[in-house]
Hints:
The chain has one helix spanning 3-17; strands at 19-31, 37-45, 51-57, 63-65, 67-70, 109-111, 117-123, 143-147, 164-169, 171-180. It is mainly β.
Amino acid sequence: MALKPLALATALLAVSSATAFAATAASVQLKDKDGKPVGNVALRQTTSQGVWMNLVIDNLPAGPHAFHVHETGKCEGEFKSAGGHFNPAGMKHGVLVEGGPHAGDLPNIHVPDSGRLTVEFFAPHITLERGAKNSVFDEDGSALVIHAGVDDYKSQPAGEAGGRIACGVVSGEITGAPSNTK
């Protein structure tokens, strides 16, 4: 009888070695170039649509703005430290070009005159799962960036979106249940 718990423990160990713990949620605090908080983004892993994002911003200029996941988890100076768009698969920029989009290409946001916007959408080409090629939690992290202009969804390499006006490092992951890494 004493062997049954040992056999169960061995079976559980074998199952756990075939899976990896996935981050099920993350958060981002967006700041402007003066370091003033201008918004927050909640991220949650989905089972079939990549990552769900809920963006709440305040006090940004009215109008359309490009919104992207960038390749490096740094937001210094003019936010160039965030690097280019997150693009682990080596795709072209934009949903309107053959061979696109980058994993970090997201829909434009449209800030009303009030400067306050709440919007949610899915980012199907990224994951919160550590170790996956398209994980925002790679070696150097990732950042979310809002640009001064609109993304045209086709110009290379970044959609003619203009300067970077807000940036935040993806962080605050919550480890959830094991997920298959097949």
